[in-house]
Amino acid sequence: MTKPKLTGQDIIAMARHSIINLDNKEAEYAAQEALDAGLDPVDFIEKGFVEGMREIGDRFEEGKASLVQIFAASKIMDAGMNVLKPKLSKRDKGFCFFGNIAVNG
């Protein structure tokens, strides 16, 4: 049986979901799927990982998430970003900027 083809929106939603649900493996998988699908890394990071972090931050402000969850979510995002770094560092030497995020390649 073949794996169903994910759309770009599916992959971005998976990245966002991985942050919200603190799922390390899902973040890594989403990042690899984004690379394999040829998604724009800036869009993927901003609409996926950053939006997930924003939602965790909003939950924290509402008293529905703890500071520990914010730190855990940042570690999950790091796991996904680590999948992207080798590809990004081939494109640019030094720092890569994605909106408000800088990645040292």
Question: Overview of this structure, please?
Answer:
The protein is mostly helical and 105 residues long. It has a single domain (8-104), classed as Methionine synthase domain (Methyltransferase, Methionine Synthase (B12-binding Domains), Chain A, domain 1, Orthogonal Bundle). Helix content is 70%, strand content 8%. It contains four helices and two strands, in the order H-H-H-H-E-E. The protein has helices at 8-20, 24-37, 41-61, 67-91, and strands spanning 95-98, 101-104. A two-stranded antiparallel sheet has the order 1-2. A hairpin with a 2-residue loop joins strand 1 (95-98) and strand 2. The protein is globular and about 40 Å long.
**How much helicity do the residues have?**
55-70%
Q: Which CATH first-tier class would you pick?
A: Mainly Alpha
The H/E string reads HHHHEE
Number of domains: 1
Approximately what portion of the residues adopt beta-strand conformation?
A: 5-15%
User: How many DSSP-defined strands?
Assistant: 2
DSSP helix count?
4
List low-confidence stretches. none
SSE class = mainly alpha
CATH architecture: Orthogonal Bundle
InterPro entries: Cbl-bd_cap, Meth_synthase_dom
Domain B12-binding N-terminal: 2-96
Protein name: B12-binding N-terminal domain-containing protein
